Amino acid sequence: MKKPTTIRPAHGPLAVLLPGLGAVATTAIAGVMLARRGLAEPIGSLTQMGTIRLGPRTEGRSPRIADFVPLAKMSDLVFGGWDIFRDDAYESALQADVLAREHLDLVEHELRSIRPMPAVFDPAYVRRLHGTHVKRAPTKADLVEQVREDIRRHMRQNDCQRAVAVWCASTEVYLEPTEVHRSVEAFERGLLKNDASIASSQIYAWACIKEGVPFANGAPNLTVDFPAAWELARKHEVPIAGKDFKTGQTLMKTVIAPALKARMLGVRGWFSTNILGNRDGEVLDDPGSFKSKEVSKLGALETIFRPDLHPALYRDLFHKVRIEYYPPRGDAKEGWDNIDLFGWLGYPMQMKIDFLCRDSILAAPIVLDLALFLDFAKRAGLYGIQEWLSFYFKCPMTAPGLDPEHDLFVQLKKLKNTLRWLMGEEPITHLGTEYYD
Ligand SMILES: NC(=O)c1ccc[n+]([C@@H]2O[C@H](COP(=O)([O-])OP(=O)(O)OC[C@H]3O[C@@H](n4cnc5c(N)ncnc54)[C@H](O)[C@@H]3O)[C@@H](O)[C@H]2O)c1
Description:
Layout: E1 14-19, H1 23-36, H2 46-49, H3 65-68, E2 77-83, H4 89-96, H5 101-105, H6 108-112, E3 117-118, H7 140-157, E4 162-167, H8 184-192, H9 200-210, E5 215-217, H10 227-235, E6 239-241, H11 249-262, E7 266-276, H12 279-284, H13 287-305, H14 311-314, E8 318-325, E9 334-342, E10 348-356, H15 359-379, E11 384-385, H16 408-422
Parallel strand pairs: 1-2, 1-4, 2-3, 4-5, 5-6, 6-11, 7-8
Antiparallel strand pairs: 7-9, 9-10
The protein binds nicotinamide-adenine-dinucleotide (NAD).
Nicotinamide-adenine-dinucleotide binds next to α1, β2, α12 and α15.
């Protein structure tokens, strides 16, 4: 990758476009509105709370990331989005039942001003939902044009010169890439022929890239992770990233697994189960959508443990992931893990993790960070797959043929070194050479 010579400044409002104004999106929007008025802290957001060490430890330089990198300010963000239901962001947030009413009421007026644009939606790809607020058009190519017009209108009406999009809509059924996903030309033909392997999320992504709008995918759908989309993103010089926000169970998995591997401890089995009762849980109760999530959640261990290199430790690893829809819990998900590991001379041990988390509270800061970093990436002249944002994803998109990096701390190091590199600072290798000079 060529280092940019100039980074365009973050002048003026930034449109943040969210397909799917459900629990995650409204929690992110309300949180930004509260934080920028000083009514709450943006906890969990690396861009707002994180620091970055620069130079040798002897220099003692550790600015806030937001002071080091020219990111857009929270006060510059103008939210918009699409949903299959007409509820404005306030009504949708009440329905999602994540944030307390006393929090939401402080920004009610602002939230109510965010009314979803009609969605691109086909229940063939999300079987548990039946929306009423949807676009109609003879072909999928026409739907792409309608989304492009939505983007332009939103930017015009809000006086925005820049926009980014983060997919916060429901998880679609599992789809493998087909012939239409091979090239830009094939995909364009598929749009005209209403090819069944082109799901709604791909239509949004295609429209965004054509409009020069960076796109991150918070769900495990294909969306923007196929050769035609990579090609289009390169052609239009648009950064893309995905997929599936790394929030609860996989966040912990990608911390614990590298620790066990670092000490060369073996693992025979890893059983993960979840109970959750929000709308996401209801959608994931459908086997097609669950398959998308299952594939996304299963990938991490294999890549971290590398049984091909360490057969004695991980050859027989049995990894199973379950998600159970359990309405009484709402958004307060519980993720259990049972790990059967073994140590010196093969003696067995167990580890249990019980994470009583809150799904959307963990996901909301990721939406904010991705919006700000993708906008920054575009201004810095980066485009195509942004591997340095793997930190935020369960199933990170990588350049074709490369294994994704799943270890959370390697991902963080990569993210911070990318920021250092872009801003003309030395990467930090942890060699500690300041003491050998
Ligand atoms: N919360 C987390 O921890 C987490 C982690 C990883 C991934 N995710 C993913 O993020 C997404 C959002 O999660 P959520 O809890 O907000 O779900 P949610 O069901 O509350 O919200 C999704 C919204 O998308 C809308 N929608 C569905 N299809 C649409 C379409 N084609 N166009 C526009 N809108 C559409 C739904 O009507 C709903 O309002 C899900 O795909 C979920 O799997 C969430």
